[in-house]
Amino acid sequence: MNDMTAAHRSLPFGTHIMVTNLVNDRSAVVRINDRGPFVRGRIIDLSYAAARVLGIVGPGTARVRLDILGGFREPAQTSSPTWIQVGAFSVQENAYALKKRLDKTYRGVFVTLLKTENGVYYRVRVRTDGNSAAALASRLAGEGFPVILIRE
Fold first, then answer.
1. What is the pLDDT of residues 91-110, one digit of tens each?
2. Fold of the CATH domain 81-151
3. Is residue 35 classed as helix, strand or coil in its secondary structure?
4. For the domain bounded by 5-68, which CATH number is listed?
């Protein structure tokens, strides 16, 4: 429920796919870990965490696009600036600890500040170009990070 996972009728377990909400253009990478959905007209059943990231929790369903990651098929190529968010923390030190860990392996790791009415959040993001975003998102997801793809 709290992991970035999903159920699909036929994709192999462990497959990472990028799910994009076609209404708000939010994307998230999820890992297939279950079978389903078993409701006519539905192609994927998202965990609560994935649905929350995509903005689907309220309505319950949405039209989505699925892009299979990991060598099967790459999403459309784009050159727009792209960020892959791998964490959001209310404690600044936790965000910088993750940044330090990622800096050892990845270039372009940043901590950005987000102020909301509910508080302040420190988001850890990796900058990439649109052409390599899918591969990088797949790699980070494979390492267990709950990735969110953000295109500007």
1. 999 999 999 999 999 999 99
2. Alpha-Beta Plaits (3.30.70)
3. coil
4. 2.40.40.10
